[in-house]
Amino acid sequence: MRNLLITIEYDGTNYFGWQRQADRPTVQGEIERAVSEIFGGDMAVTGASRTDRGVHAYGQIANFKTNAAIPADRVHLALNTKLPADIRVRKCVEVPEEFHARYDAKSKIYMYLVKSSREEPVFDRDRVYHTGSKLDLARMRAAKDSLVGTHDFVAFATKKGETENTERTVYGIKIFQRGEYFAFFVYGKGFLWNQVRTMVGTLHEIGRGYFEVSDAKRILESKDRTKAGPNLPPQGLYLLRVNYRLETKSISDDVRNPDFVDNSLE
Amino acid sequence: MRNLLITIEYDGTNYFGWQRQADRPTVQGEIERAVSEIFGGDMAVTGASRTDRGVHAYGQIANFKTNAAIPADRVHLALNTKLPADIRVRKCVEVPEEFHARYDAKSKIYMYLVKSSREEPVFDRDRVYHTGSKLDLARMRAAKDSLVGTHDFVAFATKKGETENTERTVYGIKIFQRGEYFAFFVYGKGFLWNQVRTMVGTLHEIGRGYFEVSDAKRILESKDRTKAGPNLPPQGLYLLRVNYRLETKSISDDVRNPDFVDNSLE
User: Fold this and answer.
1) Which of A86, A125, A128, A198 could join A156 in a cystine, given CB atoms 3.0 to 4.6 angstroms apart?
2) Domains observed in chain B
3) What angle do CA B146, B150, B154 make, to 5 degrees?
4) Does B179 touch chain A (CB under 8 A)?
5) Residue among B106, B102, B70, B79 nearest B10 (CA)
6) Residue A104's closest CA among A28, A47, A65?
7) pLDDT on residue B262
8) CA-CA distance, A184 to A128, in Å (whole number)?
């Protein structure tokens, strides 16, 4: 069997998240429908990240297996003829048969966009979190590195009920400002549910002066979810990139927002 | 009677244009509903420009008359509580009783956004015209000034059947490039129906090498609609600003895209 990896960009606004659901539109559901139409049969597609409702992606990664002989570099064009305009496959490469988009992911980069302005945005309303507060970039930058490293991040997680290992590794956080826009890049080996949104929610509280700079470290060490800032809404979150250790180099490096990306991040 | 002028920003994607229709959502319909809810009665609101379905605005201007005593600087906040998130009133000022948003408009600035990229955009799909062609900024800039001045612009108009005076005055055209994005600013006393979209469609043909630079002047002088480039789609068009001669200075100067605006335009 051939194993094909696809890089997917999507606007999550109109979907109930990545994961297939019986009666609601989801990104995985749309991709599986398109893959089935092109390749025949009832195809299953595995995604790297189960993004939540309203969350976007520039570089979601998925894979599926097929015997069809269609060349990998034509697959994305074929799939795009079957997909709605808010989901585009950007690339397709063939990978080893044992490759698994979720289990083999070595790290992920998420971006969270905040717009700080007096007035609510019109054109960005489904693309950013709008805050009416002024944000102090220097305060947020001073706090961010205490959230980097291998820690128990339970204070930033939304618990799902089960007991599980809540230790995770964050490799780096970068924050950039362009006028009214703040972009938070969070780079890590893996994340707890809602961890990125709650970490950014905590930095946002520091940026607007509701928390002290030293509170980031204090909250992390407390392991107490009630101490952290709010879980910010999904529309500011973007799955930017998933990294693998593959001979196929840089499979998801075609990041779209050059202004927001720091190439030294890795 | 007090006469109140409002500046309106809207995402036109979900509306059948500005003008009120009995059974379809329109921007004027939403504004009139909100104004009626706040001020009581069955209020009529006059807009400066009847933007088409899918066309956006950063600075649509409208006015309405009322005896209510609500201070002008609170009106926009009140209206925004009654409006959907894709329409925001940005400002309200009191104007002389005889002021009329359409008849008194002295000039208008439209912006048309084109994205030139190999791949179709996801996040911008309702905000720009996507072209797969490479555009040569220098060629478009060399051609644009032959469309400036007082001319019969019938070659760039979509005729509505009636005979009318098709002479209009264009004060200036500016074209800027930021990476894959091209912004066309067209500043004029008034425009024929579809004139801006067809002028930009013609410059686009010049930019991608299908027309010669000298064709802009030739097409204008031909007065033949079949010679011009296509009427580009509505989602790239933005009503940016309407100018009046009022003591209330700069009523619509809070333009949102500082990167795209050339302050020397006026």
Assistant:
1) A198
2) 2-95 (3.30.70.580), 107-244 (3.30.70.660)
3) 80
4) yes
5) B79
6) A47
7) 47
8) 11
Q: In this structure, what are the phi and psi dihedrals at residue B68, rounded to the nearest 5 degrees?
A: -65, 150
DSSP-assigned beta bridge partners for residue B88: B9
- In this complex, do A10 and B56 lie within 8 Å of one another by their Cβ atoms? no
Amino acid of residue B167: E
The verdict on a CB contact (< 8 Å) between A122 and B258 is: no
List of residues 6+ apart from B112 with CB closer than 8 A: B129, B183, B184, B186, B196, B197, B200, B232, B236, B237, B238
pTM of the shown model: 0.89
Interface check B118 vs A, CB under 8 A: no
Q: CB–CB of B136/B155 below 8 Å?
A: no
Distance (Å) of CA A46 to CA A2, A60, A93, B225, B239: 14, 11, 15, 52, 44
pLDDT digits (tens, 9 = 90+) for B64-83: 999 999 999 999 999 999 99
- Are the beta carbons of A92 and A73 closer than 8 angstroms? yes
Does A222 score more than 50 pLDDT? Answer: yes
Which element (helix H / strand E) includes B61? strand B56-66
Query: Is 70 exceeded by the pLDDT of residue A249?
Result: no
Query: Is the CB of A122 less than 8 angstroms away from the CB of B179?
Result: no
Distance from the B124 Cα atom to the nearest Cα atom in chain A, whole angstroms: 9
Q: Which residues of B touch A55 (CB under 8 A)?
A: none
Mean pLDDT of A124-141: 97
According to DSSP, the β-strands at B56-66 and B237-243 are parallel
| pLDDT tens profile A155-191 | 999 876 556 899 999 999 999 999 999 999 999 999 9
Say what the pLDDT of residue A246 is.
Answer: 64
> Would you place residue A247 in the very low, low, confident or very high pLDDT band (cuts 50, 70, 90)?
low
